[in-house]
Design goal:
By secondary structure, the protein is an alpha/beta fold. It is built from 13 helices and 9 strands.
């Protein structure tokens, strides 16, 4: 397997590693995730080989503010799924320091109860500057685990706060954690991250104020209810997708649950709610709608990165530095400078329009 090293790999060696990973070999799975984290042609080759085997796992995102107990709750959720006889993949994302560029990757320390279970695969990764709570390779790592046969994949985000909503674009079910005394009712109402929740969990429910926090969240959901439309996570659509025609069944109101991850209480109820949400998605047709939206968003993101890479490839460091200097000196605004640089790069007109800032 030594042939697989970022851009330097032997195609037959890569194919062998992929075959072993698809057969459940943990070392091979770890190597493939390393390749997709490194990016480049090797990563694209890996994803092309494993993609036909994906789409079977239930992707569950767990997000919330730092200190809300995400890692401990994921640990308990993994144990609950194992008691059901299911294998579990875990992708835990840690923040990268903007100063040193390093990351502690300490989430698995809180998952020591399951770290040695041969039927649970844990992978920690750093954001490496990505915003929205996920690393750029998070989705690709989850695809490798999906293809390797893990039916449940738990994705723990960084914990960036109110704006950490990227997980809702990828996960099938998004669990948002809140804790008692994390803010008053107004804080609960304005927290944008709650708008993407499929399930809301008041964790550390053994602390004072848990009942009040749950009541405030229930009130927020009542205020946000729109009876003439169907609200589902981050989707708000006037017409339901093709389904069984029962509009009542197609409406999903995020339940508010209370858990104490440290004591393991409330976790079975959370697992039941996650399963209920999954069944609702499949029954109502929202799963197909969300899959199309996710694929379109990802395709646009990939093309945007590719176009930006091509643009920078055709620009010299001196040209870019000159543009930055002019902008800093207020001799030129950033939008004009961008169009000048694109003209200097001699990109086709359609690519110029695709990279225009909006």
């Amino acid at each position: 397997m030594s042939a697989v090293r970022g851009e330097r790999y032997d195609s037959s060696g890569l194919a062998e590693v992929v075959t072993q990973a698809l057969d459940g070999n943990r070392r091979a799975i770890a190597r493939l995730i390393t390749v997709v984290e490194q990016g480049g042609q090797a990563a694209r080759d890996v994803l092309a080989r494993v993609y036909p085997r994906t789409g079977r796992a239930h992707l569950i995102g767990v997000t919330g503010a730092p200190g809300s107990g995400k890692s401990t709750l994921v640990n308990e959720m993994a144990k609950a799924y194992r008691r059901q006889g299911l294998e579990v993949g875990i992708v835990a994302v840690d923040p990268t320091s903007p100063f040193s560029g390093g990351a502690i990757l300490g989430d698995r320390i809180r998952m020591r109860d399951v770290a040695t279970d041969p039927h649970i695969f844990i992978r920690s990764m750093a954001t490496r500057g990505s915003l929205g709570g996920l690393a750029r390779a998070t989705a690709d790592a989850a695809r490798v685990l999906d293809a390797a046969g893990y039916p449940v994949i738990l994705i723990e985000t960084v914990g960036a706060g109110q704006s950490e909503v990227e997980i809702a674009q990828f996960a099938h079910t998004t669990v948002v954690l809140q804790v008692p005394a994390s803010g008053d009712e107004i804080q609960a109402i304005k927290a944008g991250i709650l708008e993407v929740a499929d399930i809301i969990v008041v964790n550390k429910a053994d602390l004072p104020g848990a009942d009040n926090a749950a009541a405030a969240l229930e009130a927020m959901l009542d205020l946000n209810s729109v009876p003439t439309r169907l609200h589902h996570g981050r989707h708000l659509t006037a017409q339901p997708p093709a389904g069984d025609g029962d509009s009542t069944a197609q409406h999903w109101r995020p339940p508010v649950l209370k858990t104490s991850a440290l004591r393991g209480t409330g976790v079975p109820e959370l697992i039941d709610a996650i399963q209920a949400h999954r069944e609702h998605q499949q029954r109502s047709g929202f799963s197909r709608l969300k899959e199309r939206e996710r694929v379109e968003g990802e395709l646009r993101e990939i093309m945007s990165r590719a176009l930006l890479g091509e643009l920078l490839h055709h620009l010299s460091a001196a040209e870019l530095e000159h543009a930055v200097t002019r902008i800093v000196a207020r001799e030129q605004d950033p939008y004009t400078a961008a169009h000048v640089l694109m003209a200097q790069a001699r990109l086709p007109q359609d690519k110029k329009e695709s990279t225009e800032y909006r």
